Every structure is written in C-alpha cells, then in structure tokens.
Amino acid sequence: MRAVERFAATVTIPVLHEPKRDLVDQVGTGTLFDHGGRLLLITARHIFDEINPEDLVIPSTQSRELHGIGPYELHRADNKDIDIAIVELRHPPTIERARAGWRVLTLT
C-alpha cells in the first residue's frame, strides 16, 4: 500500500484557483496525461461549477512560483453525475513548465 501511496504522490498535482492576485485556494487535485503529444489535466468536473478556468494556476515543484494556465480547452460532461473534467493545456510555456515540474502519465 505504501508503494501505491508514494506513486500517487508523484502524479497528483494541486489544482489551485487564484481569482485575485495573492489570493490562492486549492480547489482540488488532478493528474497530467500526455495523449498524442497533447497535455491533459484530468480533474473533477464539479470544481468548474463555481470557478472560472481562467483563474487556474499550476504550482511549480521547483519553486514557489504560480503561473496561470493560459489558453486551454475544457471538456466536461453535461451530466453532473459524471464528475470528471479534462483541461487541455494549450499554452506552450505552461506545457513546458508542467512537463518539467510534474510527472506526466501516458496512455500507453
């Protein structure tokens, strides 16, 4: 079980919300996946019921800096019972920082 916990800790990133400068709140967690070269953040759908995705920030594991996610595409089910969301990161600097700072899983 400890091996599973250690692995989960390496692939789970905090999903942070920064609606105002210097006001940051963790609203969930997510996991980064590479699918065909596209970087996808998989997280809970319900967090987007109350927050604006433009206010999401990704922490760097190498520093305490926070960076907005930049351009993205949000995919979520219309059915609220399906509590999954996929945020496709499309901003090259965001993608580069995320890949450098976090473990990214692949589907293969």
Walk me through what this model shows.
- The chain has 108 residues and is of the alpha+beta class.
- The protein has a single domain (2-106), classed as Thrombin, subunit H (Beta Barrel), CATH 2.40.10.10.
- The chain has helices spanning 2-11, 92-101, and strands at 13-20, 23-35, 38-43, 56-59, 66-68, 72-76, 85-89, 105-106.
- Strands 1, 2, 3, 4, 5, 6, 7 and 8 form an eight-stranded mixed sheet that branches.
- The longest helix is centred in the first third of the chain and has 10 residues, at 2-11.
- The two termini are 24 Å apart.
- The model has no long low-confidence stretch (mean pLDDT 88).
As for the CATH topology, it is: Thrombin, subunit H
Nearest-integer average pLDDT: 88
Domain count: the total is 1
State the end-to-end distance.
24 Å
- The gross shape turns out to be globular
Within CATH, the superfamily carries the name Trypsin-like serine proteases
Helix content: 10-25%
Percent strand: 35-45%
Number of strands: 8
Classified by CATH, the class is: Mainly Beta
The DSSP helix count reads: 2
The largest sheet, given as strand count, sense and whether it forms a barrel, is: 8 strands, mixed
What is the CA-based Rg, rounded? Answer: 14 Å
Low-confidence stretches: none
Structural class: alpha+beta
* String of helices and strands: HEEEEEEEHE
Proper CATH architecture = Beta Barrel
